[in-house]
Amino acid sequence: MAKKKLRVGILFGGRSGEHEVSLRSARSILKAIDRKKYDVVELGISPEGRWLQGRKAQALLGEGAAVGAGEAGVSIVSAAAAPGSGTGLDVVFPVLHGTFGEDGTVQGLFELADIAYVGSGVLGSAAAMDKDAMKRMFVAAGLPLTPHVTLLRSEWRADPKKATRVIEKALCYPVFVKPANLGSSVGISKVKVRGELAAAMDLAASFDRKIVIEQGVGGPGVKPRELEVAVLGNDAPEASVVGEIVPAKEFYDYEAKYELSGPDESVCILPSKLSKAEEKRIRAMAVAAFKACDCAGLARVDFLMAPATKGKRAEIVLNEVNTMPGFTSISMYPKLWAASGLPYAKLIDRLIELAMERHKEKMETSFSR
Fold first, then answer.
1. Contacts of 178 (CB under 8 A, 6+ apart)
2. How confident is the model at residue 70 (pLDDT cuts 50, 70, 90)?
3. In angstroms, rounded to a whole number, what is the distance separating the alpha carbons of residues 351 and 94?
4. pLDDT (tens digit, 9 = 90+) per residue, 274-300?
5. Is there a common fold for 6-117 and 148-215?
6. Backbone angles phi, psi at 148, to 5 degrees
7. Distance between CA 25 and CA 13 in Å, rounded?
8. Domain ranges of the chain
9. CATH class of 6-117
10. Which of 44, 37, 33, 108 is nearest to 79 (CA)?
11. pLDDT digits over 128-172, tens only?
């Protein structure tokens, strides 16, 4: 008797500014996933928040007819269905980036529906999404960071001069101004002088109520190396080789990540050229950051490295943890694991296994007396 296939829901789209990035990731997964092992269900979320399945979900990916405004959608609860119904999902792979997908909100829905899912839980997703909360966890774990300040949108709008004084008292230019809760470098600006600060703060404030301002690593005139590590696992996570991005622009912003191509595109170096000691340190820090944020399944951990100077070794600091990184076949997370010996299709298999393992382990917990 043939073994029953796992029914896997691939969830994509969403209401965030990273909707298009999610669609790109989903297309790659749907193309590579082993249909002999899995019964695949496509689940889409329109930019307006409508849940869609089958042909309507395919339309989001540019396949089939356009989605009509009045078409009824589905919910994850109905998709989960009752155990043994034959129509439920065994596991969901939420290929959702940014707000309403990577921030713990949809993970809470999966928990309520009691369904296994790929990636971090509510806490890990929310903590890693909020750059301010994430940094607090890094500090508690003793991990190195660049100096930073967090301000509320209301504080900036109420008294920009006071906010500027707070920033300049704590940090030196250049600084990077970021919305606390967003990914793919959306809304981020590099500020070299005070005259550029207001526009950067206004841009970040348009995306989130919390604004994180970070001091540039290495100081004026220094372009730090941008290093990335892929982490995979649950309670015993493992780190990939270290990769490096050489941005096509001054820093690795949305355009440099997704829009530039040909001779203008950013360059990926795999593995990065580091000493054995530096590589060992960075990989250990990646696992420590993963654990500090209570991540699970997968995460990409990003670092900044200023070059060594006379009498001082290279400065390596944590930048951030991304709990649902870009997942196209040419995205850094899959490429890092491919360079470590785990090809794309096998990586998908492993992530589904980890999701099922974590859900099984959760079932050992008592939720009542």
1. 131, 187, 188, 204, 211, 212, 213, 214
2. very low
3. 11
4. 999 999 999 999 999 999 999 999 999
5. no
6. -150, 165
7. 10
8. 6-117, 128-144+222-357, 148-215
9. alpha beta
10. 44
11. 999 999 999 999 999 999 999 999 999 999 999 999 999 999 999
Instruction: Kindly report, residue by residue over 235-272, the tens digit of the pLDDT.
Output: 999 999 999 999 875 654 555 444 445 556 779 999 99
Structure tokens at 311: 């009498």
* Cross-strand partners of 6: 38
Give residue-wise pLDDT tens across range 6-60. 999 999 999 988 899 999 999 999 999 999 999 999 999 999 999 998 888 988 9
Residue entry with tokens 């959702």: 96
Report the SS3 class of residue 238: strand
> Residue 79: its pLDDT value, please?
57
Please compute, for residue 64, the number of CA atoms within 13 A of its CA located in the half-sphere on the CB side: 11
- DSSP letter string over 44-61? EE-TT--EEETHHHHHHT
Q: Retrieve residue 303's tokens.
A: 């670092």
Rounded distance, CA 353 to CA 42, Å? 19
The C-alpha atoms of residue 299 and residue 276 are separated, in whole angstroms, by 23
**CATH assignment of 148-215, among 1.10.10.10, 2.60.40.10, 3.30.1490.20, 3.40.190.10:** 3.30.1490.20
Pick the CATH number of 128-144+222-357 from 3.40.50.300, 3.30.470.20, 3.40.50.2300, 1.10.10.200: 3.30.470.20
Q: What is this structure's pTM?
A: 0.89
Q: Six-digit token pair at 83?
A: 């155990």
